[in-house]
Write a structure and sequence with these properties.
By secondary structure, the chain is mostly beta strands. It has three helices and 64 strands.
Length: 778
């Protein structure tokens, strides 16, 4: 055999092996309720002699899936967890999908086996041993209510309540409670004090004559509303507060109410006997997750419904897609961790707390309908983010017991979302709500926010580096959510469309339109007047507009000028041709790239351009992209509050530089000024610095920082470019001091070095936080 023949034969062999591999890797498998896990899984139906056909379980199919394989799941209810065991790759994904649009349900519940036996009256019982911390019972596809007083309303987000008559930190008296029973051992769910969030307490005693419920002394947060007096002021039961009680046998009095006696492992249920319990397919949650794509990559899941369970991922989950999935009663929620994953065209509803929780980096949440979450009224929102660089676009987020979207993390994009009907249970909330966070350039834009019992877009205390532009916010207040006015002590002040609670730094509010109440406001506990670096420009505020002297207000259309909307009563906030908002705005980089006329317009809609739309549309799925964003007056210092450690900073002596970690929420004397981190420079001449680019020639800038000195430390900040250097130093000791100076760039200069230095005595120390470098508006 000559060399050429050998090479041709080798090439042919390699091509054969490659083709053979491709056939195997792209194999199609089927799962059916008529299947058998001992079969090959390669047929969609059992063969004529019953010797081969689809698999019975998704678990069996997963054992056979390799890159390029597809698993088609046929109609039925599958009581298992879809968990891929292998990853696909960028060329050959692993795919799970329903077959021919058939209805596939993966449930976290199992049917209760055994026979219901009458206990007494309308109460039946069945042996049942609790298998997890919580218990959820379902009847005919709906969540069955736990035995409670008052009885369930039938709407998880509009529960019935009892009313508090008065109380202490150890007991609560009610206007009315059941008589002739002992509620000891039941669980008290109370919205006490200012009703900021749900409190849960075990009932330790009950006096049916005085209608008084006792409970153990509650836990309190150290340094924050601690002590009996402060706790009572903010969290203690008072006349008019709401509550309900659950988890007691004697409260069983309504159809499908249940109670579990954990001592006897007996489940009780009340039945009106219209449909015998044996025929109701009573099921119980036994699995937390219907889908688990932890530790895999390149897996696509589509066309599946999940029930009574959530979705699990982890930090190793990458490049996975969940598409056209419906989920109901999704506790403990839809968790999207890892990187470069996507949730697209899905509907998720009903969860005790948050529904969709996104962490990791660069994940995409696109065109989803997320609703009826946080029906306990707990802290938190129903769509929450942490991490870095997520895109949350074209979603509808509706009916939340608390806030709707929690835009945490750094450098996120929240755009073209519709947010509606929030604050149905607890009310110190926002359609968008975040507190104590460095947004790191997060953009909240082109969202429509409406019917919020609370604030529309709410940056609570100690929040920085957000850009809020081209949003429409209207109807914020109790009257848009509740039928009757709340108790006077629940008043959170003005129901602002946008609020920047102090301290608030480097937040930009541009070209928003508000209606139906106050436009923008603030409130503060510590550093109460600090809104340094906040710019408010080109907005339409028909209601009130309040900021402190430390913020910058550019041109805005305020309440003394009629904006002339086309039809605000029908939620059309576009401008009439007669509006004074037209051609009146201050032009801002990357905010006004497509305006009509001599100048941009005030507000969220540009006259003469087609109005943008928000919210989900399952018939026309959008394809948005994450776009880098810079605009005028942003803080040019990266990681300015050291929330990401010393990233972006250079140092002269790492051994003498340390990261300070301390919660400063509401505490002006903490060693961190805002949020949870600051930097410590221990000893004379220790310095950190950062190279800054993107400066504009011949423009004026201000360099600033907060510095706290100890042990004879003296802090200095400086700017240097070419031969030019300017600096300023601290003059106070043992307290946070704000220092700043202005400078103007010289010709052709677009970059500079910013330095922070301890120039005190040997052994001295300075803390530094919240460094800023911003362009002046004039």
């Amino acid at each position: 055999m000559n060399k050429i023949s050998f090479l041709l034969g080798l090439v042919s062999l390699l091509l054969f092996l490659q083709c053979k591999s491709a056939v195997v890797d792209n194999h199609i498998f089927y799962v059916s309720k008529q299947g058998n896990d001992s079969w090959s899984g390669t047929l969609s139906e059992p063969n004529a002699n019953g010797t081969d056909g689809p698999f019975l379980t998704i678990t069996k199919a997963s054992l056979n899936l390799k890159p390029g394989a597809i698993c088609f799941i046929k109609e039925g209810i599958y009581r298992e967890t879809l968990k891929p065991l292998k990853s696909g790759n960028s060329l050959h994904k692993i795919v799970y999908s329903n077959f021919n649009n058939e209805k596939v349900i993966i449930t976290g519940t199992d049917l209760l086996h055994g026979k219901w036996v009458k206990d007494k009256g309308h109460i039946y019982k069945i042996p049942f041993k609790k298998q997890s911390a919580g218990i959820m019972i379902y009847s005919q596809g709906n969540l069955a209510p736990e035995a409670s007083w008052p009885n369930s309303s039938g709407d998880l987000l509009k529960p019935n309540y009892g009313k508090v008559k008065g109380g202490t930190y150890l007991a609560m008296a009610a206007e009315y409670l059941p008589e002739g029973i002992d509620l000891k051992g039941a669980i008290l769910y109370g919205y006490f004090g200012k009703e900021w969030a749900l409190q849960t307490m075990a009932v330790s005693g009950y006096d049916s004559e005085t209608k008084t419920v006792s409970f153990p002394e509650p836990k309190r947060r150290k340094n924050y509303y601690g002590g009996h007096e402060k706790w009572m002021k903010n969290y203690g039961p008072r006349a008019g507060n709401r509550f309900y009680i659950k988890g007691h046998y004697d409260l069983l009095d309504e159809n499908n109410e249940w109670y579990l006696n954990e001592k006897t492992n007996t489940l009780y249920m009340f039945s009106n006997e219209e449909i015998p319990l044996q025929e109701q397919n009573i099921s119980v949650k036994v699995r937390d997750y219907a889908i688990d794509i932890s530790n895999v990559s390149y897996v696509d899941i589509s066309g599946i419904e999940i029930f009574g369970a959530g979705v699990k991922t982890d930090s190793a989950t990458t490049f996975c897609i969940i598409k056209q999935v419906k989920g109901y009663y999704v506790d403990p929620g839809i968790s999207i961790a890892g990187s470069y994953n996507e949730v697209n065209n899905c509907e998720f509803a009903y969860s005790k707390k948050g529904i969709l929780n996104v962490s990791g980096n660069s994940n995409r949440i696109i065109n989803n309908y997320i609703h009826d979450g946080n029906y306990t009224g707990d802290w938190g929102e129903i769509l929450n983010t942490t991490g870095y660089g997520h895109l949350v676009s074209h979603n509808t987020v509706a009916r939340s017991g608390g806030g709707s979207i929690g835009p945490g993390g750094r450098n996120m994009r929240f755009q073209y979302n519709t947010v509606t009907d929030a604050g149905l249970i607890r009310h110190d909330i926002g359609g968008f709500y975040i507190a104590n966070n460095d947004g790191g350039g997060t953009v909240i834009s082109h969202n429509r926010v409406q019917n919020i019992y609370g604030i529309g877009i709410y940056l609570d205390n100690s929040t920085s580096n957000y850009i809020i532009h081209h949003n429409v916010v209207w109807n914020c207040g109790w009257q848009y959510v509740l039928s009757n006015p709340p108790a006077s002590f629940l008043d959170i002040g003005a129901y602002d469309a946008i609020r920047l609670n102090t301290p608030s730094n480097f937040n930009l509010v541009y070209n928003n339109t508000t209606f139906g109440g106050p436009g923008l406001g603030y409130w503060g506990r510590n550093f109460k007047r600090d809104m340094y670096g906040d710019y408010v420009i080109n907005n339409i505020f028909p209601g009130s507009f309040r900021i402190t002297e430390s913020a910058i207000a550019g041109p805005n259309l305020n309440q003394d000028v009629k904006p002339d909307f086309i039809n605000p009563e029908q939620t059309n906030f576009e401008l009439k041709s007669s509006s004074l908002a037209i051609d009146s705005a201050y032009k801002l980089a990357n905010i006004h790239n497509d305006y009509v006329g001599e100048s941009p317009d005030f507000g969220a809609y540009e006259f003469g351009r087609k109005a943008w739309k928000s919210g989900h549309d399952f018939n026309a799925s959008p394809k948005p992209e994450f776009i880098a964003f810079k605009t005028d007056f942003m803080n040019l210092i990266q990681n300015n509050g050291f929330e990401d450690g010393v990233n972006s900073w250079n140092n002269t002596s790492s051994k003498l530089i340390s990261l300070v970690k301390q919660d400063s929420w509401g505490i002006e004397t903490a060693d961190t000024r805002m949020q949870s981190h600051a930097i410590s420079l221990l000893n004379s001449d220790v310095e950190i610095n950062q190279a800054v680019s993107g400066l504009k020639t011949k423009k004026r800038y201000t360099l600033s920082a907060w510095i706290k000195t100890k042990k004879q430390g003296v802090g200095e900040i400086s700017i240097q470019f070419g031969t030019f250097k300017k600096s300023i130093k601290t003059s106070k000791m043992d307290t946070w001091e704000f220092i700043k100076f202005d400078f103007e760039l010289q010709n052709s200069v677009t970059s500079a070095k910013v330095s922070i230095k301890n120039i005190g005595e040997g052994g001295s120390e300075i803390y530094c936080d919240d460094v800023g470098l911003i362009q002046s508006i004039n």
